[in-house]
């Protein structure tokens, strides 16, 4: 019973490995045109010669046939120019045949690429210089070797082009304020493009956005003008509130005449606390208003006496004055 279960487990593992190998082979460019076939008589003859050479030169052939790759590396083996089944080998020791096997080491560690500054014309026609950092790694060693000549160089060139294309569709204020969204968009775009190369783009970060000097001065002047405008508005609001408070205070003081005297004494106390020799004399406003009030013009003395006599005469004989007025 145990032997049957172990046999089923082994068959299932072999089936999974076979399906994985077939799926990986379909992802390799040109695999559809060259399906795995028998190596032929020539291939078998060369393989036999390689084995014979290993046996004849034993144990010196062990230094050539056994290779070691590190934990962070994988080895992609080609036999007679064809990719060997089973995918990449490693980590650890693997075996190759001399003269007919060739292998390539692939580093799986994350690499960092510092994108050089790119001159970008934004959507609102402003030229800016932007640089970024791209973090990527090889996720499939076999595809990275079989599908592209230099996966790292291709990824770097694509990162520069993607940076220019993404920033060219954004206005300047979005580039300055929404860097996280731009980085996410670049990461998704690069990851989709490099999937067929066996590259996984893990992160993209925009380092710096350099503006022209003239644009910096214009933006600084605009910001300063906006701050001054806000300061004037705040000062005007303060004056308005202060005037309302003064009006309320004047209404309260007008209700009590003694309040004005108390305010005057408080002002004298404040002035005396400053240790100065200033002497303040209060001057009532009513005295000034008496001198500033316009005077009535004085009439001549003779005309005033004649008018008084006429009024006395009219007062003595009112009937006569009424008849005169009616006749006139």
Report on the structure:
There is one protein chain. This protein is rod-shaped. The model is unreliable at 1-10 and 12-19 (pLDDT under 50). The termini are far apart. Helices cover 56% and strands 18% of the residues. The chain has helices at 2-26, 40-56, 62-65, 141-146, 151-167, 172-177, 179-194, 213-255, 257-272, 285-292, 301-316, 318-327; strands at 66-69, 73-79, 82-83, 92-95, 101-107, 111-121, 127-138, 199-210. By secondary structure, the protein is an alpha+beta fold. Helix 5 runs antiparallel to helix 7 and helix 11 packs across helix 12 (318-327). The protein is built from 12 helices and 8 strands. The strands form 3 sheets. The protein has a 3-stranded antiparallel sheet with strand order 3-2-5. A 3-stranded antiparallel sheet has the order 6-7-8, covered by helices on one side.
Number of helices: 12
* Strand count: 8
Q: What portion of the residues fall into strands of 2 or more residues?
A: 15-25%
Content-based structural category: alpha+beta
Helix content: 55-70%
Q: Which strand order does the major sheet show? A: 3-2-5
Largest sheet: 3 strands, antiparallel
Give the uncertain stretches in residue-range form.
Answer: 1-10, 12-19
As a whole number of angstroms, the C-alpha radius of gyration is: 51 Å
Average pLDDT across residues? 76
Order of helices and strands: HHHEEEEEEEHHHHEHHHHH
C-alpha end-to-end distance: 153 Å
Shape: rod-shaped
